[in-house]
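Good morning C.,

I know you're traveling, so I'll keep this short. The sequence:
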Amino acid sequence: YIFIQRDIEGFSDFALGSNFSQNPLPVEWLAFDATPKDQKVLLTWQTATETNNSHFTVLHSTDGVNFHELGHKPGAGNSNQVLSYSFTDHDPEPGVNYYRIRQTDFDGTTDYSKMVAVNLTLSQEPNIFCHNQTIHFYLPRRQNNAWSYQIYRTDGGLVHSGKLPPGYHTNPYTWDASLYAGQILLVRLTNNQESFARKIVVR
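The tokens, ready to paste straight into the viewer:
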């Protein structure tokens, strides 16, 4: 909105607002996390406030783009205190699983949480993926070899390189790729016995 008034000779206390008594956010998100547990994924989230909140819908994706509904949790309606929620995905896909929460008001208005990702690849192969403009490295547990990684642009230029300790890690090693948002990078993992490479879209 634009408010214009002409011929003002002085100022006093004033405020701008709408015709509504209040304009609150439907939900104030505090946290949203996904944790692998016994080949399942435990989703937990918290809200600081809720206004006319009907329910939450848990959404799942294997590519971070196309989501489908997993289930629902009732909202608190109206709340001014911290509330905690949880939901278990009993049948996640092998590999990377993406989750987000859709919040729905009583009038049908919707809002979304941030997106989170969890990797369930517990196989003998390394895994590389990008989430929130961060490259994640998961290493296999079968070897005690140290791994090196190299990140290249599509023109072959080396962007970054480094070393990773051996062994599988539930919490991955990460590298900030935000400077290359929207670009394609080639990421390569190597040790003294093998090499593993993947093209990554930074998003």
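Safe travels,
E.
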